[in-house]
Structures are given as C-alpha cells and as structure tokens.
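REQUEST
  id: r-88c1
  op: predict_structure
  target: VOC domain-containing protein
  payload:
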Amino acid sequence: MAIKGVDHVVIRVEDFDAAVATWKDKLGMALDRTDESEALGIKQAFFNMDNGGYVEIVAPTNPDAAVGKALASRGEGLHTLALEVDDLDATIKEFEASGVKLIGVGTPQVYVHPKSANGMLLQLNQKK
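RESPONSE
  id: r-88c1
  status: 200
  body:
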C-alpha cells in the first residue's frame, strides 16, 4: 500500500455561484463542469489542474446532508482532502489492521474518519 499523492481537494461554501465566480474569475481557474448530486445533497463545480488533480467546490442543497451539517457547524473551508493510493483494497486492509476508522468501505467512496486523521476527512482514491 502506498499513498501516491493528492488527487483533489473539496471546499465547502455557502454561496455556490459566488464561489464559482471567485475561483473562475478572480483566481483564474478553468471551470470544467458543474453538477448536482441529489443523493449527497450538494451542488458541485470542478476546476481541473494541469497535474491531473482538481479543486471541487461544494454547496449544500440539503442542510441535513453531510456538507450542510459541516457548513453549519464549521463554516466554509476545506471539506475533504482526497488522496490517490496505488491499491485501495490493500490500503483498506492495512488501515483497518492499524485501527484507522473508515467510512464507506464496500462503496465506491472510502473515507478515513476525521477522528483517525487529526480532524481531517480523507478520501481514498485509486486511479483506474
């Protein structure tokens, strides 16, 4: 198991349109696309970077969903740091064996619980 690097970062915001405008017009990032996930209760904007990573802006469409609750309790800011791993299954086994609390094992999105990562929500991704 090896962590290869940062895949992307997710930033939670209150005002989706204003945040997209900031990252696009003021910070000069190229907007790739926007989307909405009813299942996650969020609007999303994706800004690709030259190194293959990206910045994702999220705003809640449902205040009771995870991003809505995080925004209410912690405000705007870094929501998730997504790490690329070389072998997701091996990483899960190694982390579980060492006592790391994981969220979403068995689904396409596996996370390290913030209590196991100094308050940071980590997403684990394996590129195909």
